[in-house]
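Lab notebook, design round three. We kept the backbone fixed and only want residue identities now. Task for the bench partner: fill in a sequence for the structure below.
Input structure tokens:
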């Protein structure tokens, strides 16, 4: 294997490398979706993608639904994307187009773009509570990432990642668990406007476009996140 195949791409390079293929870069993974009309069609799409992935077959994850197949690519050895994943996305897209189907991260007529959900817990002593959440959720560490600042992940890829945010002092009157929703960089403003129109309020935009902190009418918080502003 070419040694460069194991070098993670920078966030800007990763996003630019696959966007024209109908894939999007979210949380160190490439994502796309394919519209189908039945579960049988979904199985055909997954099989087509697996054949096209070739040597990167273990990088491919497929979630089959009667109306859509969600595909993602990530090198499981480093929990990130490399040039090998770009090449796999290119092959998969070409194979799908040959069958008359398109990879489309915009979700077509459905109500949202591709996205990834994380849950964040504010904590004073992260090393003490992290093992509890790892055990109760039956989650695992990502490869080589087992420190307090590193997320816990569902080994089956079904549940959202869980990460911990350091607190300096207790905050008993404030919600200490919040959601992070990662969206394509050009989806963030639309999602932000929709949330504000629905009664939300902007808490903090000091780190935008990496993330905007929003809250509902009772103060429960969520961050709208993109890959931008993080390198």
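Proposed sequence:
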């Amino acid at each position: 294997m070419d040694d460069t195949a194991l070098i993670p791409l920078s966030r800007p390079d990763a996003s630019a490398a696959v966007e024209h293929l109908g894939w999007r870069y979210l949380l160190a993974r490439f994502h796309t979706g394919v519209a189908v009309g039945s579960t049988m069609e979904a199985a055909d799409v997954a099989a087509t993608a697996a054949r096209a992935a070739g040597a990167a077959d273990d990088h491919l994850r497929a979630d089959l639904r009667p109306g859509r197949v969600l595909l993602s690519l990530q090198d499981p050895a480093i929990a990130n994307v490399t040039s090998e994943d770009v090449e796999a996305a290119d092959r998969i897209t070409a194979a799908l187009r040959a069958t008359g189907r398109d990879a489309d991260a915009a979700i077509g007529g459905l109500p949202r773009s591709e996205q990834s959900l994380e849950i964040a817990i504010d904590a004073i002593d992260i090393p003490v509570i992290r093992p509890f959440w790892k055990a109760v959720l039956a989650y695992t560490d990502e490869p080589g990432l087992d420190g307090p600042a590193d997320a816990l992940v569902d080994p089956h890829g079904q549940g959202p990642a869980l990460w911990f945010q350091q607190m300096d002092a207790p905050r008993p009157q404030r919600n200490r668990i919040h959601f992070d929703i990662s969206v394509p960089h050009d989806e963030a403003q639309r999602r932000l406007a929709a949330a504000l129109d629905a009664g939300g309020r902007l808490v903090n935009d000091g780190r935008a476009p990496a993330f905007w902190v929003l809250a509902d009418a009772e103060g429960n918080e969520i961050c709208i996140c993109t890959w931008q502003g993080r390198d």
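Keep this in mind before ordering anything: Residues 116-225 form a domain with the 2,3-Dihydroxybiphenyl 1,2-Dioxygenase; domain 1 fold (CATH 3.10.180.10).
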